[in-house]
Structure formats: structure tokens, C-alpha cells
Amino acid sequence: MTVATRVYVARLAGLAALDPNGDQVGRVRDAVVRLRTTNRPPQIVGLVAEMPLRRRIFLPIGRVTSFDPEAVMLATGTLNLRRFEKRANELLVLHDLLDRRVEVDGRPGTVVDLAMEQSRNGEWLVSRVAVREHTGRLTRRGHLLQVEYERVRGLIGPTDTQGTASLLAVFDRMRPADMANALQDLPDARRNEVAAALDDERLADVLGELPEHDQVEILAGLDRERAADVLEEMDPDDAADLLAELPKPEQDVLLDLMQPDEADPVRQLMKYQRGTAGSVMTSEPVILTPDATVAEALARIREPQLSPVVAAQVFVARAPMATPTGKYLGMVHFQRLLREPPSSQLGHIVDNDLDPLHENTTLTEITRRMATYDLVAMPVVDSANRLVGAVTVDDVLDHSLPEDWRDRDADDAA
To answer: The CBS domain covers which part of the protein (predicted)?
Structure first.
């Protein structure tokens, strides 16, 4: 067991919370601090842990037996699975206190982290604050100070004294889906502020994991050129879904601001009727010609920007390689690629036994066929048998679940 005398809260974010058997209960997302009417330091009363299905629960600090570098260990006992709700005299360390602008001995700075220590009577109290000094110079970062709580002024104050840098550093360790979930817990203004501070690629990934109404609100908070840049970083099918939620004039403005080679596939996807293969497919699967080798195919599917479902197979077609391609010939699963000599040509090992989907194939039929043949992706062709895209299993799930499945409020109500 690790007996920690001082624990910095930001370092706990994302750690697994384990029961005495080593089974994961959830992942730590924040710590709850209780304010006091006296001058005593605030008390850490518990942790917020995220369980499967995105439900957040409260873990009393008394249930924690140790803080390890890779996990938080819990004592034996029954957990209260009610959804966590912050009380009037409580704050969340990461969401409410990180990035606060404060003063240390009269000098301005920004809160980077808070440390808690256990007192003799067993309480965990905020003992020290990590503060980055302000230098007044754009090219130089201030010193990082670790000072006693009593030396800090302005820690508990209006929310408009918060920045975003330290919270972004915590979020940077999260997967896009977890970060999207965390953003939903923030007040609207704070959420939009944090979202605007993300780089284009990261924000695009996170937007794809948010409910549609949150996507629209965040996009509306950006200037139009920045919004177009973010849309360019999104997968074309996700960008098309998001644009479909906007008024037609706004769609046209943003599409015109996008680079033509990024906007064209999005425009094409938006022409398809909702609930069909054309409306849910990705227009950028992995496509190679029949004379390409197994070695070339393996190199393509290793590209880090490809999602697992897109990289699971290679589609083979005549040139041109951009959708719509030449004549569609078939597909090769990555397991088949691993079993074949690197010099073998794809045209000799292509699987063309399964009929491809057509642009107007319904979602019900797509689901039935993918389940029947245990596929994670299926090709979509047009009337001329040209490959126009591929439907992946995550596309099917996204459009089969209730429209509000990403919404935290809907999950809690259920």
C-alpha cells in the first residue's frame, strides 16, 4: 500500500479506481472540495469517478485506502451509485479552481494544481497550491511556485477569473470521448472557452463525440473561418452530420470557406437521404488498385490517423482511387493480408463474394447484413458499380442508437 502524505489532484485525473480485488470501479475525473466559513483550508471530501455508461458517482475520501501512481485503491464496502450532484458549498478542483487567476504575496499568477494532505484527525485538506507566476512577457513563462494555501488570495472567487491552460493539460491525457463527457459537465461559457482553446484537430475529434446540440453551440461560438478549419479536420461524414443541423445559409457559408477538396466530399454526403448507406458512410476508406502489393496495403493500414474500423480492410478498385473510383473489384481483410507474402498483388487475393451496399440501402438492411457476415465495414457503390464509400460498424451504431445517446442529461434521466 502507498501511503501518500501529499497528493496533487490534477495527477489523479484519469486514474483507475480499484476495489480491494483489483477490479476497476471507474476512473477518477475530479475531486470535491468543501468550503468552510472559518479561515481553515478547504476540505477534500471525496472524488468523482466515472463509471461505464458515463455515469459519475461520488467516492467518499474515507473509502480511499491509497493513492498509487497508476490507480486509486478503495476499501471494501458498498458504493452509492446515485449520480453525483455538487452541493451549494462544494467546488470541483479541476473544473472550478484550475486556471484561476490568483495572487501570491501580492504577485499575480495562475493556479496549475492543488495539493491535499491528511491531518491528524484523518481529514484531507487543501494544503498547497501550485501557481504559475505571470511575467508580463509573451515569450517567457513564469516560475512555478508551490506555496501554502494561506498565501494565496483569490482562489475562491467569481468564475470569470479562470483561464484554460491547466485544464487543457489535464484533458490532454483523455481520449476524445472522455474529454467530450467532461466538457458536458462545464458551464456553457466555460465549455465554449475551453473548446475554443483546443487546436483544430483535437477540437474536431471531441466534437464528433458530443451531442448534436452541443456541437452546434460550440461551432457557433467560433468565428466562421475557424469553424471551417475545424470542419476540415473532421471526418467528412461527421462534418456532414454537423452541418445538417445548421440553417441552409450557414451551411453554404461554411462550405464555401472550406478548402474545395475538403468541402466536396461533405457536399456529396449531404445530398443523400437520411437513413441510407450514402448518408452514414465515410467517403475516405482505404482504397488501392489490384496491382498494389500486400506490403503496400499493410503500410497504408498502419497509418496512425486511420480509425481501427477503417484500417480493418482494404477496398480494391480500378483507378481513379478517390471516390467515386473506377470499377469496384472487392475487399481484402487485414487478417488475409497478414497471411499472404508481401509481394502478392491484391488482385489475386481479393474477396468479391459479398455484394456491396448501394447508396440507397436502408440502415436496417445494412445492420442485418453486417451482423449476418460478422463485418466491421462494407463497401458502398453507385449505379455504375463505382466505390463511393464504406459503412463502418461505428457509423451503424451512431445512427441506430437514440439521437440523444451522447447527452449526459439523457443518460442521467434514464
So the answer is: 350-408
Strands 377-381 and 357-358: parallel
Question: Is domain 175-271 annotated with CATH 3.30.420.10?
Answer: no
Q: Domain-by-domain residue ranges, the chain?
A: 7-94, 95-165, 175-271, 287-399
Condensed to tens digits (0 to 9), the pLDDT of residues 325-351 reads 999 999 999 999 999 999 999 999 999
The total number of residues shown for the chain amounts to 414
Residue 275 phi, psi (nearest 5): 85, 10
Dihedral sign of CA atoms 298, 300, 303, 308 in order: negative
Number of H helices, E strands in the chain: 15, 19
- Please state, in angstroms and rounded to a whole number, the distance separating the CA atoms of residues 170 and 4: 21
What cell does 167 get?
485544464
12-48 confidence digits (pLDDT tens): 999 999 999 999 999 999 999 988 766 678 899 999 9
* CA proximity to 309, closest of 235, 228, 400: 235
pLDDT beyond 90 at 130: yes
In whole angstroms, how far apart are CA 342 and each of 288, 301, 339?
15, 14, 9
CATH topology of domain 7-94: SH3 type barrels. (2.30.30)
Cβ neighbour number for residue 318 with a 10 Å cutoff = 14
Q: Which of 115, 120, 118 is nearest to 148 (CA)?
A: 115
Alpha helix segments (H runs only) across 91-175 = 165-171
φ, ψ (nearest 5 deg) of residue 281: -80, 160
CATH number for domain 287-399, candidates 3.10.580.10, 3.30.200.20, 3.30.1360.70, 3.30.70.890: 3.10.580.10
Distance from C-alpha of 21 to C-alpha of 24, rounded to nearest angstrom:
9
